[in-house]
């Protein structure tokens, strides 16, 4: 049987009316991208270009969230040298991506993009060059009215607020150094400013992690509460940042898993210094396959290193790669474990 990768594994999303208006207004090329996003994973199709890039434009964040791999590594004094991606490196990546045909970029990996001094210039550059879908995740605490208006002028397609509980006390406990009331006020004001302009863009999504101890009522409350202020609410499977889940797990001889990770077939992840991985959860840079500051994006996408990684996945041997064997998403999929909310109308 042909192996398949589930592009929406561990993810569920719910929408409101504004979302559907926004979606209806998107270009034919956007829908071409979304079709490939699903089908290329399902059929393990490899284009001549990555459909999507996760670009870590910084490795800086002003929070110390308890569940974040960055927090854990900072506390162990094991985090990378603090730096922002150079604007010229970013432009090189965008230029090459557009020439290849890449549709989409997310502008963060374990960072707060609003801290980068060149964020607005980067967004505008990507849009002017022709990236169809430009978006980023933010904790929302730094989004004052001035920054909100500048983002609304930038051409940004989507803005994702990471708010991991609708309950103030729980949020403030896990999102250390953040403040629930401030974040919700910023989210609400951003939507008010966008709607007052009559803009459909950027689409606003609240993203929430489905922690292992989460109860159904919290998910119901989150959906109801956040859809007042956002166009979509997404629930993402928790991934243990300590990578303990597969540590002591053993596999029978010649074991073949049904799990295939979609990432090496659809996207690349680039950290602030230009190093490239096939996985957006490669916190320890165990899977580095190239460096876009020294190589072309096309060279990395077509590299033997990435081809070998894909081959391991297609063979059902994910567990033979240390970083993958300890990935909660991989292990749960291999064991056919379901997340608390089942898939409904998901998008990236």
From TrEMBL:
Designated name of the protein: Molybdenum cofactor biosynthesis protein A
Domain of life, source organism: Archaea
Alphabetical keyword list: 4Fe-4S, Iron, Iron-sulfur, Metal-binding, S-adenosyl-L-methionine
Domain Radical SAM core, first and last residues per copy: 47-248
Keyword Nucleotide-binding: no
Keyword hit for Secreted: no
Recorded GO MF terms: catalytic activity; iron-sulfur cluster binding; metal ion binding
Cofactor: [4Fe-4S] cluster
CDD domains found in the cross-reference section: Radical_SAM (cd01335), SPASM (cd21109)
SMART domains from the UniProt entry: Elp3 (SM00729)
Pfam families, alphabetized: Radical_SAM, SPASM
């Amino acid at each position: 049987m042909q192996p398949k990768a589930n592009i929406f594994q561990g993810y569920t999303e719910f929408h409101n009316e504004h979302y559907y208006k926004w979606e209806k207004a998107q270009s034919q090329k956007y829908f071409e991208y979304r079709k490939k996003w699903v089908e290329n994973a399902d059929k393990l199709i490899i284009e001549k270009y990555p459909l999507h890039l996760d670009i870590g434009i910084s490795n800086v964040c002003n929070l110390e969230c308890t569940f974040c791999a960055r927090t854990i590594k900072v506390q162990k004094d094991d985090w990378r040298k603090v730096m922002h991606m150079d604007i010229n490196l970013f432009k090189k990546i965008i230029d090459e991506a557009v020439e290849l045909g890449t549709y989409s970029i997310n502008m963060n990996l374990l960072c707060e993009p609003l801290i980068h001094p060149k964020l607005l210039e980067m967004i505008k550059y990507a849009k002017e060059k022709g990236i169809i879908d430009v978006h980023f995740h933010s904790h929302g605490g730094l989004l004052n009215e001035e920054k909100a208006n500048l983002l609304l002028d930038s051409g940004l397609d989507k803005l994702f607020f990471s708010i991991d509980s609708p309950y103030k006390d729980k949020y403030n406990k896990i999102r250390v150094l953040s403040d629930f009331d401030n974040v919700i006020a910023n989210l609400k004001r951003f939507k008010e400013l966008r709607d007052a302009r009559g803009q459909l863009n950027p689409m606003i999504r609240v993203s929430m992690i489905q922690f292992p101890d989460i109860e159904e009522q919290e998910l119901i409350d989150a959906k109801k509460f956040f859809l007042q202020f956002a166009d979509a609410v997404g629930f993402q499977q928790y991934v243990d940042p300590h990578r303990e889940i597969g540590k002591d797990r053993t596999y029978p001889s010649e074991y073949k898993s049904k799990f295939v990770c979609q990432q090496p077939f659809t996207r690349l992840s680039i950290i602030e210094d230009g190093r490239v991985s096939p996985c957006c959860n490669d916190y320890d840079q165990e899977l580095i396959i190239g460096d876009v500051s020294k190589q072309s994006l096309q060279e990395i996408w077509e590299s033997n290193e990435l081809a070998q990684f894909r081959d391991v996945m297609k063979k059902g041997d994910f567990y033979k790669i240390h970083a993958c064997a300890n990935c909660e998403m991989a292990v749960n999929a291999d064991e056919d474990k379901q997340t608390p909310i089942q898939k409904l109308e998901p998008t990236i």
